[in-house]
Write a structure and sequence with these properties.
This protein is α+β, with helices and mostly antiparallel strands. It is built from 7 helices and 16 strands. A hairpin with a 5-residue loop joins strand 7 and strand 8. The radius of gyration is 23 Å and the shape is elongated.
Length: 307
């Protein structure tokens, strides 16, 4: 289940049943987290599919979301806003000042999410397990190509807005990401054996002392430097730490050049670790060889303390 058409067809059909299971839906889509819900315990009147950047949550954030109003047979692709917790930031004024809210746009009972903004709305008919889309206003049938294009355009717009927000130093998202990334370096070092990097690379010790973290060079310290277990080639790891994408890419390129010259390593590789999708980072990477990007995700669980 990879295409938009396949996901939506499955989603719309299942919405009309009492099945609340979501494990068969993708967890990621177009570099974003994807979460699907048909209700908790009992079927919800509005089922949904949300697409969030790593620092957002469905309960606290803003994000593109499909909302299926089953009683109206209407699917809305919306500029979603969480109802549970009001996020510190939201969609830009060009959206909030010009787009209609779902409550003002749809005719009929709007049980939830009425404050979110409409990007596109479709009338839905499900015939023989096949969902048919029609434009909500004109009633004209809409092809799967147009439906997929609508989602692609909204996701691209969202990614750019999140990227702008992360670059804004005053943004709560930027400040929290910067704080976490300062701690992330220590976390990666202390949990090295549990990272994907450890499958191929090991940390570097000299005379029994760890030198991988803040590895010293005459052009500045490398956040983390590791060495291949197989052939001794180096891996340069740089955390974005609130810098611009251009600065981060330029920095890792300089460090890789330093390793190439001073360690005689023509196969040095690089990894940039960031806290959020960044369109400019993506394009800055296009012509840089041997550099990958990892988006980190934070997770935690609570365990009862047993006396």
């Amino acid at each position: 289940m990879n295409s938009v058409s396949e996901i939506l067809n499955t989603f719309l059909n299942q919405s009309l049943t009492g099945d609340l299971k979501t494990a068969h839906f993708p967890k990621e889509f177009s570099d974003l987290n994807m979460k699907t819900s048909f209700g908790q315990g009992v079927p919800a009147r509005v089922s949904w599919i949300a697409f969030t950047s790593p620092e957002m949550a469905v309960s606290n954030g803003y994000y593109p979301v499909y909302l299926y109003y089953k009683s109206l047979n209407v699917l809305v692709l919306s500029y979603g806003i969480s109802e549970t917790v009001e996020h510190a930031d939201t969609w830009p004024l060009e959206i909030t000042n010009s787009k209609p809210t779902i409550k003002s746009y749809l005719d009929g009972d709007i049980p939830r999410y009425g404050a979110s903004y409409v990007y596109k709305a479709y009338k839905i008919e499900v015939e023989n397990d096949n969902a048919i889309f029609a434009d909500y206003e004109s009633g004209d049938e809409v092809t799967s190509t147009f439906v997929e294009s609508d989602l692609e355009n909204l996701l691209s717009y969202y990614k750019e807005q999140v990227s702008i927000e992360v670059r804004d130093e005053s943004s709560p998202v930027n400040q929290s990401l910067f704080y976490m990334e300062k701690q992330l370096e220590d976390f990666i070092i202390h949990n090295w054996d549990n990272t994907d990097f450890a499958k191929e690379y090991e940390l570097i010790y000299e005379e029994g002392e760890l030198v991988s973290q803040q590895f010293r060079t005459d052009i500045g310290p490398i956040d983390i430097l590791a060495k291949s277990k197989r052939d001794g080639h180096h891996l340069v790891i740089e955390l974005k730490k609130g810098q611009t994408s251009d600065d981060t890419v330029g920095q890792i390129a300089r460090y890789m050049g330093w390793i190439k010259e001073h360690k005689s390593d023509t196969n040095v590789k690089g990894v940039i670790v960031a806290g959020a999708f960044d369109t400019k980072l993506k394009y800055a990477m296009e012509l840089i060889n041997n550099v990958d990007v990892f988006i980190y995700k934070l997770d935690f669980s609570l365990e009862e303390f047993k006396k």
